[in-house]
Every structure is written in structure tokens, then in C-alpha cells.
Amino acid sequence: MELTAVLTHAEEGGYVALNPETGTTTQGETVEEAVANLQEATALYLSEFPMPSLGHPVVTTFTVPEPAHA
After folding, report:
1. Calpha distance 32→48 (Å, rounded)
2. Structural domain boundaries of the chain?
3. Which of these, 1, 7, 17, 30, is most buried using a 10 Å CB contact count?
4. Residue 38: phi, psi to the nearest 5?
């Protein structure tokens, strides 16, 4: 099953990893560690809450204008 991993920098260092399809979240010191931890957490989640494969996810970005300063 192919799922999505969204990684962002953690304030305390390292990375936070999120799987939006299941809502599982974890962290790691490196990208590789964060993804490995996310794979493990997501596998545990899916063992309790199975879900059908929905095909390949679509991932894109968008821009939000910065607010005008008053």
C-alpha cells in the first residue's frame, strides 16, 4: 500500500512526519528516521484499523498571500 509522508522541521530539531491518510504522526532526528518511525506507526495503526487502498495519493502545494501589515 502506497501512502503519503509529509515531513516538516521540528522546533526542537529533527523532523515531524505525518501520514494524512491515517492521521499517524511521529518524529525522528533525520528524514530517514522520521519516515521509518512513520512506517512503523502507520503499520500498527492499520493493524487495528484496516482501510482499503485508495490508489496513489495526489500531493500538491499552494500559496497563501501574507497578511498586510496594519
Report:
1. 25
2. 6-48
3. 17
4. -65, -40
For residue 8, give the H/E element and its range: strand 6-9
Rounded Cα distance between 25 and 32, Å, is 15
Q: Tell me the CATH class for 6-48.
A: alpha beta
Q: In terms of Cα–Cα distance, which of 46, 45, 24, 51 is closest to 35?
A: 24
Distance CA 65, CA 24 (A): 29
Inter-residue contact 34 to 19 (CB < 8 Å): no
pLDDT digits (tens, 9 = 90+) for 38-59: 999 999 999 999 988 777 778 8
Residue-wise pLDDT tens digits, 15-24: 999 999 999 9
